[in-house]
Amino acid sequence: MSSYQPNKAALTSLHNKILVMIVGPTSIGKSTLMKKVCELDPEFSYVQAFTTRPRRDDAPSTYRHITESEAATLYANHQAITYIPHPTTGYIYGTDHASYKSRYNLLDTLSSTVELYRNLPFERTVTISLTAELVDWQRWLALRFNAPSSELTKRLEEAKTSIGWSIAQRDNHAWLLNSEVNLEDCAQQVIDHVKGTKRLSSDTPKEATDLLKYVENLLS
User: Fold this and answer.
1) In this predicted structure, what is the pLDDT of residue 1?
2) Predicted pLDDT of residue 142
3) Phi/psi class of residue 160: alpha, beta or left (left: φ > 0; alpha: ψ in -120 to 50)?
4) H-helix or E-strand containing 184?
5) Residues with Cβ within 8 Å of residue 142, at least 6 apart in sequence
6) What is the pLDDT of residue 108?
């Protein structure tokens, strides 16, 4: 909701924090990667956003799951820093001052909300788009969605938007090729990029364009 105004006092807690936004389509491994980054470096933690989305049974959740009534109360009392209805599912996602626990804060971010987070008074924001080999993503996607469904279609539409947005980026943006086999190396690349010891490439990898073509074909 663009008209939402957070509690100004809560915003001051962001001034000495860095937000690391991980953008990518469903099932690309964002949560798994963030977990590994936090294991490798205690200066990192994931942003514990709240959501009205039901908890998934197949994996641990990085979210604080709340009811629609609880979300409405946070909104009405201006206690949330961000309060975002998902564009395809309608579930509410948001954060409050307690969500940002560390110096470096990792957030699984929708492409449509990157600018919203960039406009918050963080010391600095970093945006990394996550992609993968097409065969890997197909396997990960099948593990979550084992049959055609309206939910899968919504997620594919979101994936098309997300990948397209990432390909169009030119500033304050980098790419990372995710890999199950080299997960620790991928996590270390995130750490190095954020801390400035070794930068990720800003050039769009072929794997991203392969994923976009695949999604477009599925939706056509």
Assistant:
1) 44
2) 96
3) alpha
4) helix 183-195
5) none
6) 92
* Structural domains in the chain plus CATH codes: 8-219 (3.40.50.300)
Q: Which two tokens stand for residue 146?
A: 């084992």
Low-confidence ranges of the chain (pLDDT < 70): 1-2, 58-60
Calculate helix-pair angle for 206-219, 134-144, nearest 10 degrees: 50
Pair 78, 5: CB distance under 8 Å? yes
pLDDT value at residue 52: 96
Q: What is the DSSP string of 33-74?
A: HHHHHHHH-TTEEE---EE-SPPPSSS--SSEE--HHHHHHH
DSSP 113: G
Here the tokens at position 215 are: 């999604």
CA angle 139, 140, 146 (to 5 degrees): 75
Per DSSP, the three-state class of 202 is: coil
Structure tokens at 68: 């629609």
Alpha carbon 111 to its chain centroid, in Å, reads: 8
The pLDDT of residue 84 is 87
Collapse the DSSP code of 148 into the 3-class scheme (helix H, G, I; strand E, B; otherwise coil) and give the result: coil
Within 8 A by CB and 6+ apart from 219, the residues are: 153, 156, 157, 160
DSSP, res 200: P
